Amino acid sequence: MSNPSIFSSIDAYIARCIMLSEADYAYFHSQLSVKNYKKKSRLLSAGEVCTFEGFINKGCCRVYYLNANGNEVDLYFGIEEWWVSDLASFSQQKPSNLFIETLEDTELIFISYEAKERLFKKIPSFDRMFRLMVQRTHETLMKRLLSTYSEPAEERYLAFVNRYPAIVQRVPQHLIAAYLGITPEFLSKIRSKLKSKNK
Amino acid sequence: MSNPSIFSSIDAYIARCIMLSEADYAYFHSQLSVKNYKKKSRLLSAGEVCTFEGFINKGCCRVYYLNANGNEVDLYFGIEEWWVSDLASFSQQKPSNLFIETLEDTELIFISYEAKERLFKKIPSFDRMFRLMVQRTHETLMKRLLSTYSEPAEERYLAFVNRYPAIVQRVPQHLIAAYLGITPEFLSKIRSKLKSKNK
DNA sequence: CGTCTATTTGAATGTACTCAAAAGCGGTGG
DNA sequence: CCACCGCTTTTGAGTACATTCAAATAGACG
Question: SS3 of A70, please?
């Protein structure tokens, strides 16, 4: 390893789920690769098979979908300590429907499909780690789905701001609209309404 | 086992994901329990900790959420070979936000939290099985979220009918409306519009 | 058969969208 | 350092999708 601390963030992430020996960590690191991207780099396009799960060491990405009307819908934004991937495409090695791109200069730690399989074979507790990870994502998605069906856009926006204040600072507003499933114009109107309320 | 074939459906389900020995299956079965419920039985209420994952051997259930306005939103309907649970509540042993109830007389195969942990310990490939299971659910949820943001209610209804024809037959229409995130009145209007179209 | 619940229909309303145009903001080059 | 360009955000008018409320009809079950 050129820089002994480059994996410190991902190691800390792992350590919250499972216990690994020094040797396990060394093997884990041997299966990873690190890469830097400029702002607005495309990491995945719909139609490609997603070849990686990427841990954001530094930077910001968005994962989005292009619907039949040509509108982008943002699935989520990732900052430090988030993973970006299309799990469906990656795990089944089939073409993706999603796009992933960087919103800032970004340093990613990659794990490939083959490396992940090797990891599962050599260190079975990674099965558990990734299961817990997917479970958490699942819970988040479910809550989002429920709030979409239960709350008007204004409340969903407030909940988003409240839950992801760091992301609101870093992501342009029209992308947040695309995440909330509303038009940028409408989000702007919501914001101006909220502003006049709080005065 | 009183009835040697009672687990045949769940065994077939498992076999699609992982390979198990006869002994493994025997142990697996020893960790399960089977229970029959009448129509409209409540299996879980919001506020309770979800103590089980339930595999539907026979019957039909719904998993739903009660929002702040007192409206029910259906997360999904389960028929034979589906699992019903609140994974977030179950896996973290914290109070649920969901309700689960039967829509027909239903036979469920239960696995408790402790039994599942024992299973993971004794047969680690179950970690993999449940990871794959959550991954599939994750993919389904994601598609649903995207379609909610991309398609009007009419198309979502058609997609639902197309994807789950068996469920449409068995679940009352106002619950399908609650799944689609629309009012029963509006679903009725969509249907009558579709009917006049296809004549 | 009667009761209870589910579905349909209609009118009025509201939330969010489309389209168009103006204003703001950030970066880049002269 | 300012001017300009492109992109983001705001604002407004008209429209569409979906809701609410109310009432009528149809179905299911004891």
Answer: coil
State the best of A142, A182, A187 to mutate against chain B, taking most chain B CBs within 10 Å. Answer: A142
Per-residue pLDDT of B79-100, as tens digits, reads: 999 999 999 999 999 999 999 9
What does the pLDDT look like over B128-170, one tens digit per residue? 899 889 889 989 999 999 999 999 999 999 999 999 999 999 9
> Is the CB of A95 within 7 Å of strand D?
no
How many contacts, defined by CB atoms under 8 Å, are there between A and B? Answer: 94
- Distance in Å, residue A70 CA to nucleotide D18 C1': 23
CATH class of A8-124: mainly beta
C-alpha span between A165 and A167 (Å, rounded)? 5
Residue A184 (CA) to nucleotide D2 (C1'), in angstroms, measures 31
H helix intervals, B64-198: 87-92, 113-122, 125-150, 153-163, 165-170, 173-180, 184-197
Any idea which nucleotide's C1' is nearest the CA of A189?
Answer: D10
Decide if pLDDT at A187 tops 70. yes
Prediction pTM value? 0.91
